[in-house]
Amino acid sequence: MKRIHLLSVEARADAFLELIEALGAEGRRVGWLDLGGAQAPATLAAASGAGVLRAVGVDDGVTVAVKPRKGAVVMKDLLREYFVGCSVVLVRGAEGLPRLLVAEVGWLLEVPGATARALDTASLVAALRKPRPFGP
Predict the structure, then answer these.
(1) What are phi and psi of 100, to 5 degrees?
(2) How many angstroms separate the CA atoms of 98 and 111, rounded?
């Protein structure tokens, strides 16, 4: 599996539209992972609670899958199962990851143990081309 860059975010996904579009223009996919409480549709949650392997709902333009999970979240497993093909995943509710904040102009990147950096979209996209864009 190719390296996936994880960035902790707090804003809604639409705040990152410029970055998502810039990465998409290079043929790179972006994923969104919300660790702060997904709300499953009631019918899918009931099916999941009944013990099915996976409950899936399909509507106009969207597919929702609900899968029961035991134990703590294992990030490596989530990435392998849901984000294959993504080069970047924006993660809400994560700690210990580089944090990307929306600035008045561009982005503010906070990397644990380093000074925060202001970046424009082109510079951030260029950094995300590297295998280790934010440190060792």
Answers:
(1) -110, 120
(2) 4
Nearest Cα to Cα of residue 124 among 2, 10, 26:
26
pTM here is 0.88
Sign of CA dihedral 66, 68, 72, 75: negative
Residue of 8, 5, 3, 1 lying closest to 125 (CA atoms): 5
Virtual torsion, Cα 24, 27, 33, 39, nearest 10 deg: 70
Residue 60's CB is within 10 A of a number of other CB atoms, namely 4
What is the chain's mean pLDDT, rounded? 92
What are 99's two structure tokens? 């944090």
Integer Rg of the chain from CA: 17
Burial class (CB in 10 A: 0-12, 13-18, 19+), 5: buried
